[in-house]
């Protein structure tokens, strides 16, 4: 990257009083533009993004409920309460399921679609558009559409009965519901994943495949030894982003099951939402957000380190 | 290898290739059905009469517009659409203005503190929104921000992702061009507005659309900050009247609302898909 500054400035001249904007030299004008242009965005980031984070740490160490007008400092009490709260632990376990099942499912589905798309020439644009459309639509609307499709006398059940699988209770079954929610999340994100992988696949030089073909490598060998390793940087981005997404599962859960049945789908974020805006216990809710933040932070670091180092070895 | 053997070999390869792509077409079409069917079913339901909604036919025997009339006359849905539109337009304009300036400065100048500022902005992308929502809520409720447009808007006026996107595009501008304008005596704002901005028009298209979509679809914050029905945005309204729905006859209404909230996005996407796809691919790779 090249930056500007090719015009040699005159020897540094002090900005004297009364010199006026018109007489500012070139460097001063540039400085004025840089810091003037950054002023509002920087202020915004500090006030709307950075300070709230600090504030939320502060709240997490206090008893901050409707019954405590003084908001006394209680140290790690909120954290202790959370870690002994079976519902919070349940939400942690569920969130683990969202991530562990959802991330690979989304990546594999996206990769399969991207690879299939590479095989075809005609109608490629149409397919790409169709697969991408769910990603741009509203999560709330999609949640309700699937609720409608998956209801007891809905179309999916009609199809299941037709196929001899018998009627299912889908979102009303404590053992199935979470997987149906994951399926809907994956369904909505396939298009995005596909696009990232398509871009990655296009960056792999055709030469490698030709060389491997001459050496007699089978299609599967080429896939394992060329495609997968060279997709690694793209994969890294996808894994990190998908994990963060699934860790924050909320909208689908709230709209499809509300966390039920029997809390079988409740996620950490839904639990935070209930703590903060149903029981108005901001201290407890903030402590839960801090825990979530630490989890996201650690997971991202680990992923960058593990996947990143694997990439460098290739 | 004899000529006939080579010919046979080529033929098998060709046949294999053709059948391979046949399988690909088959699978892709199957997937396409899975992607599109839920929307088709939604639209079909929205045109069905009440006694037909449980019928398993995609095409209603009698197409009715009554559901749309009902939703426009009997619910605050039109108001929610206007709210969403208003909020999304302001957020989009603000994000485009501020993110492009910030991206341009971070891409094209060297100055003290640049790295710190960039890392600071990027690191905020890692913070889960939930962590910010509680402080935002506490502050908004003490500053009368609840249930106002300003309250819905303030978290989304500048986006870290957008700054990153703009910086990537602005870096591709030739510095020589900018310097030439400087030599000709153009001011820095002039250079930004009349040279940089027109040259990264595709980036603006991408950023505009992604911000618009994001704002139109955003749920958790509007859900928390809005309290009265007149202030809801579409997703909040959808969730509200769907969870209020008591008997199954409301499904028609829900699917009609879903259609109304999804169709504008699909149309927008179809109009600008080139930009959206390029924008995502670009940011995905860098």
Question: Brief description of this entry?
Answer:
The complex is a heterodimer of chains A (314) and B (286). Chain A is mainly alpha-helical.
Largest sheet of chain B: none
Mean pLDDT of chain A: 86
Greatest interface: A-B, 96 and 95 residues
For this structure, the quaternary state is heterodimer
Q: How many DSSP E strands of chain A?
A: 0
Q: Write down the Rg of chain B.
A: 26 Å
Q: Tell me what portion of residues of chain B adopts beta-strand conformation.
A: under 5%
| Shape summary of chain B | globular
Mean pLDDT score of chain B: 86
Low-confidence stretches of chain A: none
Instruction: Output the number of helix runs of chain A.
Output: 13
**Helical residue percent of chain B?**
over 70%
Q: What is the CA-CA span between the terminal residues of chain A?
A: 26 Å
Rounded to the nearest angstrom, the radius of gyration of chain A is: 26 Å
How would you explain this protein's 3D organization?
The complex is a heterodimer of chains A (314) and B (286). With 314 residues, chain A is mainly α. Helix content of chain A is 70%, strand content 0%. The longest helix of chain A has 35 residues, at 26-60. Chain A is globular, with a radius of gyration of 26 Å. Chain A starts with 25 loop residues before the first helix and ends with a helix. Chain B has 13 helices and no strands. In chain B, α3 (77-108) runs antiparallel to α10 (201-217) and α8 (175-183) runs antiparallel to α9 (188-199). Chain B is globular and about 75 Å long. The interface between A and B is large, with 96 and 95 residues.
């Amino acid at each position: 990257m090249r930056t500007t500054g090719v015009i040699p400035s005159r020897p540094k001249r002090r900005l004297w009083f009364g010199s006026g904007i018109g007489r500012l030299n070139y460097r001063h004008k540039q400085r004025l533009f840089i810091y003037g242009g950054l002023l509002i965005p920087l202020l915004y980031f500090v006030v709307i993004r950075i300070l709230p984070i600090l504030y939320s740490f502060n709240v997490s160490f206090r008893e901050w409920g409707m019954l405590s007008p003084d908001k006394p400092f209680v140290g790690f009490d909120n954290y202790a309460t959370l870690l002994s709260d079976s519902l919070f632990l349940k939400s942690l376990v569920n969130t683990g399921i969202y991530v562990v099942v959802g991330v690979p499912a989304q990546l594999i589905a996206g990769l399969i679609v991207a690879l299939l798309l590479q095989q075809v020439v005609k109608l490629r644009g149409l397919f790409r558009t169709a697969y991408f459309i769910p990603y741009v639509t509203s999560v709330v609307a999609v949640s309700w559409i699937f609720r409608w499709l998956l209801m007891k006398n809905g179309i999916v059940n009609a199809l299941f009965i037709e196929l001899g699988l018998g009627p299912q209770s889908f979102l009303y079954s404590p053992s199935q519901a979470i997987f149906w929610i994951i399926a809907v999340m994956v369904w909505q994100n396939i298009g995005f994943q596909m696009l990232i992988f398509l871009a990655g696949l296009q960056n792999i030089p055709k030469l490698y495949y030709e060389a491997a073909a001459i050496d007699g490598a089978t299609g599967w060998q080429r896939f394992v030894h060329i495609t997968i390793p060279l997709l690694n940087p793209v994969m890294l981005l996808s894994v990190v982003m998908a994990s963060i997404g699934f860790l924050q599962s909320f909208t689908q859960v709230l709209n499809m099951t509300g966390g039920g049945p029997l809390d079988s789908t409740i996620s950490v974020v839904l639990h935070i939402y209930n703590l903060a805006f149903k029981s108005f216990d901001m201290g407890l809710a903030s402590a839960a957000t801090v825990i979530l933040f630490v989890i996201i932070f650690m997971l991202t670091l680990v992923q960058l380190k593990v996947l990143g180092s694997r990439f460098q070895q290739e | 290898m004899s000529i006939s053997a080579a010919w046979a070999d080529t033929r098998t390869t060709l046949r294999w290739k053709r059948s391979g792509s046949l399988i690909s077409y088959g699978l892709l079409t199957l997937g396409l059905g899975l992607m599109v069917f839920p929307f088709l079913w939604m639209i079909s339901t929205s045109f069905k009469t009440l006694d037909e909604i449980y019928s398993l036919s995609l095409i209603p025997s009698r197409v009715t517009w009554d559901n749309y009339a009902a939703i426009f006359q009997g619910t605050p849905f039109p108001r929610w659409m206007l709210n969403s539109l208003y909020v999304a337009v302001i957020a989009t304009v603000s994000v485009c203005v501020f993110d492009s300036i910030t991206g341009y400065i971070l891409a094209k100048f060297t100055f003290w503190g640049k790295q710190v500022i960039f890392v600071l902005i990027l690191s905020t992308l890692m913070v889960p929104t939930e962590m910010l929502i509680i402080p935002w809520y506490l502050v908004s409720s003490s500053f009368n921000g609840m249930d106002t447009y300003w309250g819905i808007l303030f978290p989304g006026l500048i986006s870290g992702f957008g700054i990153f996107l703009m910086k990537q595009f602005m870096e591709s501008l030739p510095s020589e061009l900018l310097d030439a304008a400087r030599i000709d005596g153009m001011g820095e704002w002039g250079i930004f507005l009349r040279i940089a901005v027109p040259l990264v028009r595709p980036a603006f298209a991408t950023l505009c659309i992604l911000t618009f979509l994001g704002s139109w679809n955003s749920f958790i914050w509007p859900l928390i900050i809005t309290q009265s029905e007149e202030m809801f945005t579409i997703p909040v309204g959808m969730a509200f009247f769907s969870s209020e729905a008591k008997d199954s006859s409301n499904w028609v209404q829900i699917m009609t609302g879903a259609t109304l909230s999804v169709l504008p996005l699909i149309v927008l996407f179809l109009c600008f898909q080139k930009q959206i796809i390029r924008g995502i691919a670009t940011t995905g790779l860098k």
